[in-house]
Inverse folding.
């Protein structure tokens, strides 16, 4: 185990993570992408800000509330995974594994994902549960892996259904690469899961002796997360979470006094969420803004200032609000 991995499991320093060169490189890439958006699309900053000021605050607040409603749902789903893998018990619900505590761990991990690249927030969430509950780090990460698989399957399913409803079998060239990214990510996660299930003993032979116990715990936790009796409830919660993500963008669009087809809103919202998974920049910063704006301009035929205004307003909710509130929570939290 490298020193960085050891640090991730036994301690976490946001300041140290921010000092790492790859963090600064990722923010540099994000700035370059955002600059490229304005340059290539020839968008006026003044016109974009003017469009943003026209947004109806009531619908923006409603979009914000809908977005934050997903966090308790995510916490309930994670608690189900933790309990069925016996990492936590019902008795733990009264302390470090209560619903508010799990929501705090999830929110702090999202905050970290928004300020450092490579989805380190997921590792940080494993550390938080280990730090507060003295649980197995590897087992906890196994449930987070299972959660990510559920999210990717739900996201890609809704993305495919909404895309088919919009375009049929003739996808615009501007959107085809989104499906390739989604299919690739789902494929990789499923291959990892299948390798854990069918190739576990073979893979274990190539793992250093000091890591075999961690691998065994991670593998057992990830596989146990998908017990058939629990799957319907897990899938139902995942579907509800992604429907709410679509509703968030819907009310952002309504705030601009626009009306777009619901399948289109769901498609763009899920495409935005998909791009946050790409680990090159924190939470897809720059990539999301560019891709979503381009889809609104080329597929929906919105004016460029309006397209970018919608994108930026939505990112105020699902990115910048997490940085602002997350920083406050990180500074005052007794669980970090």
């Amino acid at each position: 185990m490298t020193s960085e991995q050891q640090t991730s499991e036994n301690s976490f320093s946001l300041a140290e993570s921010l000092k790492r060169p790859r963090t600064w490189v990722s923010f540099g890439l994000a700035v370059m992408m955002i600059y490229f958006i304005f340059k290539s699309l020839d968008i006026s900053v003044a016109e974009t800000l003017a469009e943003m000021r026209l947004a109806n605050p009531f619908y923006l607040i409603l979009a914000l509330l809908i977005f934050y409603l997903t966090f308790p749902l995510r916490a309930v789903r994670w608690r189900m995974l933790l309990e069925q893998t016996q990492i936590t018990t019902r008795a733990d619900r009264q302390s470090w594994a209560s619903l508010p505590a799990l929501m705090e761990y999830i929110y702090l991990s999202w905050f970290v994902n928004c300020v450092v690249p490579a989805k380190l927030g997921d590792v940080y969430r494993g550390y938080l549960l280990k730090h507060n509950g003295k649980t197995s780090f590897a087992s906890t990460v196994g449930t987070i892996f299972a959660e990510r698989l559920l999210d990717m399957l739900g996201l890609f399913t809704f993305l495919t259904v909404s895309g088919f409803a919009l375009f049929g079998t003739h996808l615009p060239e501007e959107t085809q690469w989104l499906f390739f990214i989604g299919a690739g990510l789902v494929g990789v996660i499923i291959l990892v899961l299948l390798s854990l299930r069918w190739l576990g003993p073979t893979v274990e032979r190539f793992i250093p002796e000091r890591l075999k116990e961690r691998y065994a715990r991670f593998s057992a936790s990830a596989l146990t997360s998908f017990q058939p009796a629990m799957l319907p409830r897990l899938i139902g919660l995942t579907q509800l979470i992604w429907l709410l993500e679509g509703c968030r963008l819907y009310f952002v669009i309504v705030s601009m006094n626009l009306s777009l087809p619901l399948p289109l809103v769901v498609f763009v919202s899920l495409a935005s969420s998909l791009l946050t998974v790409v680990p090159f920049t924190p939470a897809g910063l720059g990539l999301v803004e560019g891709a979503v704006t381009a889809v609104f301009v080329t597929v929906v035929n919105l004016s460029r200032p309006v397209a970018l205004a919608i994108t930026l307003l939505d990112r105020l909710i699902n990115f910048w609000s997490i940085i602002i509130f997350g920083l406050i929570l990180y500074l005052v939290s007794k669980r970090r």
